[in-house]
Amino acid sequence: MAAEAARDAQWAFEAYEKVRHRLPEADFPQTSAPAAHLEELAEHFDVFLLDAFGVLNIGEEAIPGVPERIAALQAAGRRIMVVSNAAGYPRRVLMERYARLGYDIAPENILCSREVLLDELSRRPHRRRGLMAPRRHGMEELEHLDAVFLDEDPSAYDEVEEFLLFGSDEWTQEHQALLEASLRRDPRPVLVGNPDIVAPREGGLSREPGHFAHRLADATGVAPEFFGKPFPDIFRMALARLSPAPGARVVMVGDTLQTDILGGRAAGLATALISGYGALAAIDHEAAIRRSGIVPDFILPRP
Ligand SMILES: [Mg+2]
Q1: Measured in angstroms, how far is the CA atom of residue 253 from the centroid of ligand 1?
Q2: 155 C-alpha to center of ligand 1: Å?
């Protein structure tokens, strides 16, 4: 089990390194400072942008002790915003999840990459769109789009003008093959609402929309457009919504070097890496930092 987790984590790390040419670039500090947990960062920062998977929760379980730590930060006047790439879920589902896990976070303080992609679409012309999205959440928040779910019907792929990748929970190898074949016949825009390659779940790593987007890019030459960490729009939207006072100290906290830490740094923020949960828990995080060159300002063994 431990060996399997280490192999998965190493695979995920290497998968992100392979696509670095499609990710933003940033400068990093020379070294990282240690801290025991999030409350030790309270003296350094006013605003905490928190990744969800690997920081607040693993799958449908809260990381033990973290709801209490977040509550303590809030009680000390620190502002908390969850910045997540979980684009497959409507906000209502995320709200219900965080409440069930024991987090008291206001709706406006949860920013999901789903909103970032929908915001982008609101500025683009009308198009017929094909969806990679779990059917079980229906068209909630997508009602206004002229869109169809993509599944086993090959003609649906050829009929749409643009593809939106929100969530891959119900996506299969067969669907991916149909999408790539259709894009080869007729290249069209692919907009990715969740750039993550994997997510930690109770049973191991799941393949997320970013995995399929990079695969189709390699297979077809179509260059996907990404919305969500580590790309800049989600950080811009978070700061616009929070409108922190001038001089406010903002930190991005996450478990993944190539999404949370790279993205936070590229957006000009301080960063804190959770090393003992999520993406790097099963592997040597110091080796990962050296190999990627992505150096956080702080390293915390736990959130
Ligand atoms: Mg994470």
Answers
A1: 9
A2: 36
CB atoms within 10 A of CB 20: 14
C-alpha 58 – ligand 1 centre gap (Å): 9
Task: Look up residue 287 and give its two tokens.
Answer: 């080796």
Query: What pLDDT is stored for residue 204 in this prediction?
Result: 72
Structural domains of the chain sorted by starting position, each given as residue range(s) with its CATH number in brackets: 2-113+229-300 (3.40.50.1000), 116-226 (3.40.50.1000)
What spacing in Å lies between the alpha carbon of 19 and ligand 1's midpoint?
A: 18
C-alpha 120 – ligand 1 centre gap (Å): 23
Residue 246's pLDDT is what? Answer: 85
What is the pLDDT, as a whole number, of residue 1?
Answer: 65
Q: In what order do the strands lie in the sheet with 79-84?
A: 33-34, 298-300, 270-274, 250-254, 47-50, 79-84, 110-112
Q: What is the value of pTM for the model shown? A: 0.95
| Whether 255 contacts 285, CB under 8 Å | no
Mean pLDDT, the chain cut into blocks of 10 residues (303 residues total):
87 96 98 98 98 90 96 97 95 93 95 98 97 94 97 97 97 98 98 92 83 98 98 97 90 98 98 96 96 98 97
Beta bridge partners of 164: 131, 191
For ligand 1, the distance from its centroid to the CA atom of residue 199, given in whole angstroms, is: 7
Predicted local distance difference test score (pLDDT) of residue 244 = 83
pLDDT at 245: 86
Distance, CA 161 to ligand 1 centroid (Å)? 32
181 alpha carbon to ligand 1 midpoint, in Å?
31
Dist. CA 66 → ligand 1 center (Å): 14
Spacing, Cα 26 to ligand 1 middle (Å): 19
